[in-house]
Amino acid sequence: MYKYYSLLMISKYPSVLLENAVNEFAKLPGIGKKTALRLVLHSLKRTPEEVENFGIALINLRNEVNYCKMCHNICDNEICNICSDSTRDPLTICVVENIKEVMAIENTGQFRGLYHVLGGIISPMDGIGPGDLQIDSLVKRVQNDKLLEIILALSATIEGDTTNFYIYRKLSAFDVKITTIARGVSVGDEIEYADEITLGRSILNRIDFKAS
User: Fold this and answer.
1) Residue 21 pairs with which residues in a beta bridge?
2) pLDDT at position 2, please?
3) Using alpha carbons only, what angle is made at residue 133 by residues 117 and 87, rounded to the nearest 5 degrees?
4) Terminal Cα-to-Cα distance of the chain (whole angstroms)
């Protein structure tokens, strides 16, 4: 009884404002209550101007961020910097799950084509189906732009492979080469956590999807 009462007392915060802030930080992925408390206490050490700038940055991000009309990448304008770059190959598109994969592949310096961000992968357990992703817009890009190659660069998981196969079936009627990144990225690994050298080699050594 005493141990339970002690734990109950420890879990109480000295301020409702502090508790509310901790609860909000703890909603972020990978952030537990202890880390959230540390972040909140750190914020209290910052000047009011710094904390205000932090809050404004988040509010502006949520309210003003745009999504590229071509590839659905996050950007400041209607078309992202990658799609508007005339030096890139417009006939080769790398299909990725989200912006984290775009950033990871860009960091390798091995890819000079364009991207298509799906906004997720097919996952029935999470209630995510093909209609929740930017797959139809990918089909339209292939149909309208007469692309030469589609690179499927999704994570080597069951969900990623399921999405790869679904896209392959959707695009099989078109005259476009469909490849997938080489399995230098281990099965079960997330693309965003792969080191740049391994990811870069996977892009360069991509294989025909049929052979995968």
Assistant:
1) none
2) 44
3) 20
4) 60
Locate CATH 1.10.8.420 in the chain: 2-64
Is the pLDDT reported for residue 182 higher than 80? no
Q: What is the pLDDT of residue 7?
A: 41
CATH fold group of domain 2-64: Helicase, Ruva Protein; domain 3 (1.10.8)
Residue whose token pair is 């392959």: 168
- At how many degrees (to 10) do helices 99-108 and 196-204 cross? 90
Q: Does domain 70-211 have CATH number 3.40.50.2300?
A: no
Q: What is the percent of the chain with per-residue pLDDT over 90, rounded to a whole number?
A: 67
**Residue 112 near residue 94 (C-beta atoms within 8 A):** no
CATH 3.40.1360.10 domain position(s) in the chain = 70-211
Mean pLDDT of the chain: 87
- Work out whether strand 207-208 and strand 66-67 pair parallel, antiparallel, or are unpaired: unpaired
